[in-house]
Design goal:
Layout lengths: L3 E5 L2 E2 L6 H16 L7 E4 L1 H9 L8 H16 L2 E2 L5 E2 L1 E7 L10 E4 L3 H11 L2 H18 L5 H15 L9 H19 L7 H15 L3 H10 L7 E7 L10 E6 L11 E6 L5 H4 L5 E2 L2 H7 L6 H4 L1 H18 L3 E8 L2 E9 L4 H13 L5 H6 L7 H4 L2 E2 L7 E4 L1 E4 L2 E7 L2 H9 L4 E5 L7 H6 L2 E4 L7 H9 L3 E3 L5 E3 L4 E4 L2 E4 L3 E5 L4 E4 L4 E2 L5 H13 L3 E5 L3 H9 L5 E5 L7 H12 L3 H26 L4 E4 L13 H11 L3 H11 L11 H6 L1 H20 L7 E5 L5 H22 L6 E6 L2 H5 L1 H5 L4 E4 L1 H9 L7 H9 L15 H16 L4 E4 L7 H10 L3 E5 L3 H12 L1
Helix pairs in contact: 4-5, 5-7, 6-7, 14-20, 20-35, 21-23, 22-23, 23-27, 27-28, 34-35
The structure holds adenosine-5'-diphosphate and magnesium ion (2 copies).
Cofactor: Mg(2+)
Protein name: Pyruvate, phosphate dikinase
Keywords: ATP-binding, Kinase, Magnesium, Metal-binding, Nucleotide-binding, Pyruvate, Transferase
């Protein structure tokens, strides 16, 4: 087996496509060498060797020694130096390099091959004793720390003692003799610690370092990082051994890092830092302040120290052309490490640079405009979920944060406002134009209007799919949920957390992207929806097949949805329209009615309000499809629950308190989610659905009569499970629609369909399609009913399932493509068999989740529907799944 791949001298055994075998660093070093770029020669020991090492009780393959010797020989030939030879010593770096960049891995060892003799040789050869011993002391410290596992503080203390003795503060003030003395003390300290001298044999040093890289694959940091980023343990790491070049050989030597474009803004301008007379990690270590690469960057920063462009103009010009070449070659923004030795440039690493969402967008659009990539490739370059960062105001990363409490990042974005503890107060202050943050133990459907009026929401209890989290995401309100540290004391009008108290009316800021609650007002950055964002979204729209609609019931949501590019409403939940204080009285009256006549009388009061809701939605949606779901929750959700509330309601509405309480108790259900809800309301009390259908058709007639584009309402019946149920509902709908159109003398096109949210509905979809013209998969409930897991209670045990690897992801966040997915596949197939043009969509939380959207594309659904703020994410994810 071939374990060793060499690179250097204008050629290489490997190339960039061999990341799995050579690791990212090794593959790109090979690629750069073959491109003829100045790369110090070296060789890569493969990841397969690492796999062998772990499969064979941490031993090496028998032929590795020979292959390494061959590799080393090649490096010696190219450099004209020889490893361990005091007359002309070759020094190397030993660098780890997995397939994916892994900050948890071993640190690099530089200057390997130095010992007492080669250090003297290097001093003579370079004509620079100070440089030689500066390199030697660096090597002893790095090797001892990384390979021998000695604490680096020990070395720092020794160096500090010397500086104190010499009465200097900076490393650059130490002379050759000073470094020699430091080296002597370092060696003594190592021997005292280990009971044996610092290894002097360069080959022993090399194998020590190689072993340390392989061993580091299993250190705790690396394991933790792999777990966090889903990197399989089986991958292994490669080891790169590379001839040293020296950035610490005086004023014409330097080391630095660069991005070909700005990684936080995406601006097309070389960005980075360098240090004169320095090595390796000095740039990031913060010992000295690094200098800018370009003159313009230096001027912008108001820096005094010269930029690389000014200090080393010739090598800078060469560097600039090399990095331009690299970017063109890799067709992406590059993150680059380089060193200059006595005016000569060397490239030490390149990779596609990590970037913010904003930069990703700009770089993708720019690269496509520059003709380097296609528009489709540009669409693939942006992570859909990352758009979230761009759609909400966010906290200025430069501003200080004083954290009061921590919770879950339930809904992204940031908001500042006065603390309030009740939905009523939020509504009162909110409608007066005040910015408020609603802080609650947890929220319930009655709080909707208060949540809408608040700029942000904090709950002490509840998970990522709690009521507060789902509703807040839908409204685009930032939300921190499950902030268990917060204790609300309604009596004293304050909350306490971490020993501090925050009174009602005090200003706080919440960051729904991190889950933090912060003291005071913090500076924000507003979202930018034009420019690159609009351009990329336009490209995405050009390639996607799936339509994207929004879940929206208020005019505000509907407007936001259109602004974000929604092509209709996929779910309008009518019950949210009933919590309005003006309406809930009539709703309660309807619930309390003793007979059908009483219910009808109360419903007649609701009808005009309901009609007006639809008129507004239809107007905003201008002829786009609007799917309206008829009343879904159990009726008792509209009633007060305890005696105190009952008394208050009775007083406010004139309804009879005893009757209210009795009715609430009558309606109580043991398991309301599987109780008298959904179309079961429409079957038991047809007059409710009749009123709603009437409202919808009357509204459509009103729009048509005004000469505007008539909407195509899609009337959706929830929680259907049987063909006969659907037949009943279809007949009810058609009958009322016919009545209304006859009365108004107008023609309205409408569709009747159902939500598929029960396993039986999916399996018997053929029966339903006889009467239903469309299906919308209500995957929140479908997931709940398929697993038999209550969405509201899953937070208590789901984590244990995820930790134990039983669930890979929360099935309420990303669709279970196997179980729930099979039901959807079956329903689509059987539905289409019965009615070939049945329209299929999805309207659960999954409609905005990129992985779930890819699934929807696969199954061939017609559209996805998600909360307004996720519409752009869905558009991009739909495009990517179509490419
Ligand atoms: P990391 O993955 O942590 O960035 P690297 O292996 O890239 O580790 O090494 C870190 C730094 O060490 C490089 O950026 C470079 O400055 C320096 N370095 C590595 N190899 C060499 C070498 N052969 N010659 C000079 N400097 C080197
Ligand atoms: Mg590094
Ligand atoms: Mg590096």
């Amino acid at each position: 087996t071939r374990w060793v791949y060499t690179f250097g001298g204008g050629r290489a055994d490997g190339d960039a496509s061999m990341k799995n075998l050579l690791g990212g660093k090794g593959a790109n070093l090979a690629e750069m060498s073959a491109l003829g770029l100045p790369v110090p020669p070296g060789f890569t020991i493969t990841t397969e060797c690492c796999t062998y090492y772990y499969a064979n009780e941490r031993t090496y393959p028998a032929d590795l020694k020979d292959q390494v010797a061959q590799g080393l020989k090649k490096v010696e030939e190219i450099t004209g130096k020889s490893f361990g030879d005091p007359a002309n010593p070759l020094l190397v770096s030993v660098r780890s390099g997995a397939r994916a960049s892994m900050p948890g891995m071993m640190d690099t060892v530089l200057n390997l091959g130095l010992n007492d003799e080669t250090a003297e040789g290097l001093a003579k050869l370079a004509g620079d004793r100070r440089f030689a011993f500066d390199s030697y002391r660096r090597f002893i410290q790095m090797y001892s720390n990384v390979v021998l596992d000695l604490d680096h503080h020990m070395f720092e203390e020794i160096l500090d003692e010397h500086k104190e003795r010499l009465d200097v503060t900076v490393d650059t003030a130490l002379s050759a003799e000073d470094w020699e003395a430091v080296v002597a003390d370092y060696k003594k300290a190592v021997e005292a610690e280990l009971g044996e001298p610092f290894p002097q044999d360069p080959h022993a040093q090399l194998w020590g370092a190689v072993g340390a890289v392989f061993a580091s694959w299993m250190n705790d940091r690396a394991k933790f990082y792999r777990r966090m980023h889903d990197i399989p343990e089986s991958w292994g790491t490669a080891v790169n051994v590379q001839a040293m070049v020296f950035g610490n050989m005086g004023e014409t030597s330097a080391t630095g890092v660069a991005f070909t474009r700005n990684p936080s803004t995406g601006e097309n301008r070389l960005y980075g830092e360098f240090l004169i007379n320095a090595q390796g990690e000095d740039v990031v270590a913060g010992i000295r302040t690094p200098q800018a690469l370009t003159k313009i960057a230096r001027e912008e920063m108001g820096e005094k120290q010269p930029s690389m462009e000014e200090a080393l103009p010739e090598v800078f010009a060469q560097f600039k052309s090399v990095v331009e070449k690299l970017e063109k070659h890799y067709r992406d923004m590059q993150d680059i490490e380089f060193t200059v030795e006595k005016g000569r440039l060397y490239m030490l690493q390149t990779r596609n640079g990590k970037r913010t969402a904003k930069a990703a967008l700009k770089v993708a659009v720019d690269l496509a405009s520059e003709g380097l990539i296609t528009r489709e490739e540009a669409v693939m370059r942006v992570e859909p979920a990352s758009l979230d960062q761009l759609l909400h105001p966010t906290i200025d990363p430069g501003s200080p944060r004083e954290v009061i409490a921590n919770g879950l990042p339930a809904s992204p974005g940031a908001a500042t406002g006065k603390v309030v503890f009740t939905a009523e107060e939020a509504e009162r202050l909110g409608s007066a134009g005040e910015a408020v943050i609603l802080v609650r133990e947890e929220t319930s459907p009655e709080d909707i209007r208060g949540m809408d009026a608040a700029r942000g929401i904090v709950t002490a209890r509840g998970g990522m799919t709690s009521h507060a989290a789902v509703v807040a995401r839908g409204m685009g309100r930032p939300c921190v949920s499950g902030a268990g540290e917060i204790h609300i004391d309604m009596k004293s009008g304050e909350f306490r957390a971490r020993g501090r108290s925050v009174k009602e009316g005090e200003i706080v800021t919440i960051d729904g992207s991190t889950g933090e609650v912060l003291a005071g007002a913090v500076k924000m950055i507003e979202p930018e929806l034009s420019g690159d964002f609009a351009t990329l979204m336009g490209w995405a729209d050009g390639v996607r097949r799936l339509k994207v609609r929004a879940n929206a019931e208020t005019s505000l949501d509907a407007r936001t949805a259109r602004q974000f590019g929604a092509e209709g409403i996929g779910l309008c939940r009518t019950e949210h329209m009933f919590f309005d204080p003006d309406r809930i009285a009539a709703v309660r009256e309807m619930i309390l009615a003793d007979d059908t006549a009483g219910r009808k009388a109360a419903l007649a009061k609701i009808l005009p309000m309901q009609r007006q809701d639809f008129v507004e939605l239809f107007q905003i949606m201008e002829g786009l499809p609007v799917t309206i779901r008829l009343l879904d929750p159990p009726l008792h959700e509209f009633l007060p629950h305890n005696e105190e509330d009952v008394a208050a309601v009775a007083q406010a509405t004139g309804l009879d308190a005893a009757k209210l309480l009795r009715r609430a108790q009558e309606l109580h259900e043991v398991n309301p989610m599987l109780g008298h809800r959904g179309c079961r309301l429409g079957v038991a009390y047809p007059e409710i659905y009749e009123m709603q259908v009437r409202g919808i058709i009357e509204a459509a007639c009103e729009i048509a009569a005004s000469g505007k584009a008539a909407p195509i309402p899609e009337i959706m019946h929830p929680l259907v499970s049987k063909g006969e149920e659907m037949k009943f509902l279809r007949e009810l709908t058609d009958r009322v629609a016919k009545e209304v159109t006859a009365e108004k003398g107008c023609q309205i096109e409408y569709k009747v369909g159902t939500m598929i949210e029960l396993p039986r509905a999916a399996i018997r979809a053929g029966d339903l399609a006889e009467y239903a013209e469309f299906f919308s998969f209500g995957t929140n409930d479908l997931t709940q009913t398929t697993f038999g897991i209550s969405r509201d209670d899953s937070g208590r045990f789901l984590n244990a399932y995820i930790e134990k690897g039983i669930f890979e992801k929360d099935p309420f966040v990303s669709i279970d493509t196997e179980g729930v997915g099979d039901l959807i596949r079956i329903a689509a197939e059987r539905g289409r068999a019965a009615r070939p043009d049945v329209k299929l969509g999805i309207c659960g939380e999954h409609g905005g989740d990129p992985a779930s959207i890819a699934f929807c594309e696969q199954v061939g659904l017609d559209y996805v529907s998600c909360s307004a703020y996720r519409v752009p994410i869905a558009r991009l994810a739909a495009a990517q799944s179509a490419i």
